[in-house]
Structures are given as C-alpha cells and as structure tokens.
Fold this sequence. Notes:
Layout: H1 6-23, H2 27-35, H3 39-50, E1 57-62, H4 65-81, E2 86-91, H5 97-100, E3 107-110, H6 116-126, E4 130-134, H7 140-148, E5 152-158, H8 171-180, E6 184-187, H9 190-194, H10 196-202, E7 220-221, E8 260-261
Parallel strand pairs: 1-2, 1-4, 2-3, 4-5, 5-6, 7-8
Helix pairs in contact: 1-2, 3-6, 6-7, 7-8
Amino acid sequence: xxxxxxxxxxxxxxxxxxxxxxxxxxxxxxxxxxxxxxxxxxxxxxxxxxxxxxxxxxxxxxxxxxxxxxxxxxxxxxxxxxxxxxxxxxxxxxxxxxxxxxxxxxxxxxxxxxxxxxxxxxxxxxxxxxxxxxxxxxxxxxxxxxxxxxxxxxxxxxxxxxxxxxxxxxxxxxxxxxxxxxxxxxxxxxxxxxxxxxxxxxxxxxxxxxxxxxxxxxxxxxxxxxxxxxxxxxxxxxxxxxxxxxxxxxxxxxxxxxxxxxxxxx
Length: 266
C-alpha cells in the first residue's frame, strides 16, 4: 500500500504549525484556514442526506480560480451528458470560492488539508468513483489514499514547465509517487504531452489530449459493479461541443477517441 514519504508528512506538519502565524499577516491564508474549520463534518452531513452510492460520483479538484475555469466546461459536459451522476468540486484557494458556487455540481467546498485524518474522512464521506485534478495540483496524501481505495485518478489540462519545482529536489521525491498513481493524464496540448518534463514525474510520456477551456470533452468512466437504472454498465460521455477533438495517436479503449478511465481496481 503506497503512502506519502515521511519527509512530505513532516514538511506538511511544519507548514501547518507555521500557518496560523502567517495568517496574521495574510488575509487569504486566514480565509483558507478559517473556512476549513469543520470541513469534513460538512461533507459528512451532505453525504448522509444526499450521497446515493448507487450512482457514480466524480470529484473534481482545482487549486484556484484559473484551474477552476478550466474544469468548468468539463463539469458542464458531465452534467449535461450524465445528469444522473453526482459531482463534487473542491478548491484550495479562497479566490475560487465565488466561482465554485456557480458550478453545476451537487456539493462544493474547500479541499481537505492533505493529512491522513482529513483525507480519510473526506473519502469516506464522498465515496468517489473518480478523482480528477485540474492542471497541476496532485496532493500526495489524497491521491495515494484514493488509489488504495480503488478510486480512478485523472489529471486534466495537465502542464508542467521545465522550470517547475515539481521536477527538482525535494518536491520531485514527494510528488513522483502521486503522479505515477494517476490512471489517465490529459495534457493541455500535444506538445505538452510529449514534453520531457512529464517523463520525470510520471516515468512515461503522456497520451496528450486537448483539455483546455475551449476544448471541452470527456469520454468515459468505466466501472464494475451496479449502476443507476438510468446508466449502462459502461456509461459514456460525448464531447461537449462540436469543436472538441482528441490528439491521441490511436483510438482510446472501446473505440473512444478521447480520454477514458479503465475499470476500478479490486
């Protein structure tokens, strides 16, 4: 069972200890800390009354407002094509709070802090079928816990620059296991997908897909087990617009031309 490194958890603990002091001088940090008070309890209360485990739930996470805007058309396509699926959206930065309230999702809130207890409670409440990150935030604790629970993992609008701290020590050591746990990565462009920068965290080049704010599509989340009476055993999502296209070199599984997820782990 994969777990984040000791040094990642130690660094996070140090940052957590320093955060209240930093919040005294930064209103944005103060807002983020205050809003997370009782977060997992809020998710649990929503789940007690609204979570239907017979229906797939896709959890989409974005760091801030820019990444949330990139995730928005994907969420809109999911809602339009599969209204019976449940959707959750979380964000890290307070700057995304206003936009989050406008998204077509069943529940939205701040992301849990990336520590074992918070992550475990959030996963237990939402019980997601898939967890999808927008652009670059791939949290090690959450990602590896979700992978161990059999949750499908993806990254959309993916981009990592050659100068990114994710490619350098010590962050590379912390981030690599989480990136390698991803089942699918949709690069923001074909050029990005072939970039050497992806080979370092993933251990392989990506199969690039045009996942941008103006290129909206999502093909499928394939899963075993029972599904809602209104879904098939392998539900699919069609492109959200006629301009949507795939940059895969060959057809994806099941003849889909675009991004897809394999069956759940057992």
